[in-house]
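User: Before I run my own analysis I want an independent prediction to cross-check against. Here's the chain; please return only the structure tokens and, at the end, one sentence I can use as a sanity check.
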Amino acid sequence: MTRSRHLSRQLVAARLLVGHRRSQGRDYGLALFLALVAGASNAGGFFALAQYTSHMTGYLSQIADNLVVGNLVVLVTAVLAIASFTTGAAISAVLVNWARERRKGKHFALPLAVQGTCLACFALAGAFTTETGRIFALAWLCGIMGMQNATITKISGARIRTTHATGMITDIGIESGRAIYGRLWPESGVKEDREKLRILVFLVGAYVLGGVVGATGYLVMGFYFALPLAALLLALSLPSLLRRTRPYQRR
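Assistant: Structure tokens:
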């Protein structure tokens, strides 16, 4: 009975975390979870493919650099990575809006379930030993990262982007600067947003911790490091997707 009750509480917690009724606390809780998964996917993907799959700024720089030097292979790879990330974000938006209309209350769980399934498929990428296969795996993982970033962006109302560490670190710097200014000139009334700063630090920490997990996972398991990450996303999303909802009745 105790074990059954504990499992029931876990299922309820998972449904609340991805439910359509949002709160700032739920947004941040989900963001921490997804930041850890994103960090693990990014770091594991680097060890597997020698490319960071969430670093779109770097790929834009690669396009510019390799246009100049004429390295078409790197140029095409960078374009493909950006296109895949963008496509993933677009798919996430389509899934959220489709589920909002047809699967009431499940429009955030659906894209997370799709991401989990895609990560599970990525675990099979080790079978692709050719250069073309490696580029395909890179595009696939970039698409997953784009989906995840877009999902948490829509959930949080654009307050949080879990794969966009540059923006989070920039905001940490801004709040730190406000704190310094406020202490040097207290009469100015400038103060840092301590809650925002705390959340940002936790998000960056979760991303780094996920990176350690992902890198270690790849060294131990190879491409199969993606399977535990896929299981986490599916465990978070499936309780909400599989829950029966009452059909809407017109009055």
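Sanity check: Confidence is low (pLDDT under 50) at residues 3-17, 246-251.
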